[in-house]
Specification:
Elements: H1 10-32, H2 35-52, H3 62-92, H4 109-115, H5 120-131, H6 136-143, H7 147-165
Helix pairs in contact: 1-2, 1-3, 2-3, 3-6, 5-7, 6-7
């Protein structure tokens, strides 16, 4: 990614937006499982970031700063959505979900369902590690948490996914391609 961003510069924020939008959208789509919700959260995240752009400190990577804002926005959305979930279930009794996980990329349906059972903080760590290939240090910077916390969230998420998906499931510990996707399949970059 291109560096040299100046806090408060509208042109630099536009460059940052252009450089980060596809990657951030992909992260939020995986976290939320709903492209429209991901786009709404991302729009809100960019708005918050733009309002704070003059106060951004160049000592921290701009992309990591923006990732933290976007992930926090998605986590807030998920918390809000869970509060509404019971009412929605009663209202929608018998209607199928509107989004098709298979349409979001090459990840298996069972894997997507298992991902969505993870607590939001574990989900964020897994997506950043195995979908985007971030290192634990980069995840820690993005989420503004210690590296040890990243490692414990990843371990807890892997254990939960193994329990959910069975013994045949193996999540790589490295930064290779996304888990649950055979290496010969191409991942849709959302």
């Amino acid at each position: 990614m291109e560096e040299g961003y100046r806090p408060g510069s509208s042109l630099d924020f536009e460059r940052l937006y252009q450089a980060t939008y596809p990657r951030l959208l992909g992260t939020l789509v995986l976290m939320l499982g709903d492209r429209a919700a991901a786009e709404d959260c991302l729009q809100e995240a960019y708005l918050k970031a733009f309002r704070s752009w003059a106060r951004w400190q160049p000592s921290a990577p701009a992309e990591a700063w923006l990732h933290r804002i976007a992930v926090n926005q998605a986590l807030s959305y998920r918390r809000w959505a869970k509060l509404r979930e019971v009412g929605e279930l009663v209202r929608r009794l018998g209607r199928p979900l509107e989004s098709d996980p298979q349409a979001e990329g090459a990840l298996s349906g069972d894997f997507i369902k298992a991902l969505r059972t993870l607590p939001p903080k574990q989900l964020a760590a897994i997506v950043l590690r195995h979908y985007h290939g971030y290192t634990n240090r980069e995840i820690a910077q993005s989420l503004d948490i210690p590296e040890r916390t990243v490692a414990s969230r990843l371990a807890a998420a892997r254990d939960r996914l193994r329990r959910e998906l069975g013994a045949e499931f193996a999540l790589p510990s490295g930064t290779g391609g996304p888990a649950g996707v055979p290496s010969h399949e191409e991942v849709l970059d959302v």
